[in-house]
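User: Hey, my collaborator sent me this sequence without any context and asked if I could get a structure. I don't really work with proteins. Can you help?
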Amino acid sequence: MAESILIVEDEFEIAENLQALISAKGYQASVARDGAEGVAMARKLHPDLMLLDIILPKIGGFDVCKLLKSDPKTKDIRIIMITGLNRNSDVELAFQNGANDYIFKPFDSARLFKKIEKVMSTQ
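Assistant: No problem. I've predicted the 3D structure and written it out in structure-token form, which is a compact way to encode the shape of the chain:
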């Protein structure tokens, strides 16, 4: 079975592009449009990896990350945080909340897939 990736991104075009890219690489890709939907889908689908935007409606990305990492049922989901904010404090906060990695927008697909492969290969 293909590894699954949940994309939590409120910007429609970015979410669609990520889903198409990820599906083309053979992963099973799902999309959530806000933090609350992301948490619900993570609990239901239990993806191998989550691409999680930081600035989201309903529940912000840092809180989504903290919620999932503190829940025994979802703590093993690997999370790459995504943001357009190029702030070092956000990187630190992402890791403090349990993120496995971090990528800044805009990013190219080669860089994204290097991060995905790196995070997927670690347990």
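In plain terms: The helical segments are 12-24, 35-45, 61-70, 88-96, 109-120. You can pass these tokens on to your collaborator as they are.
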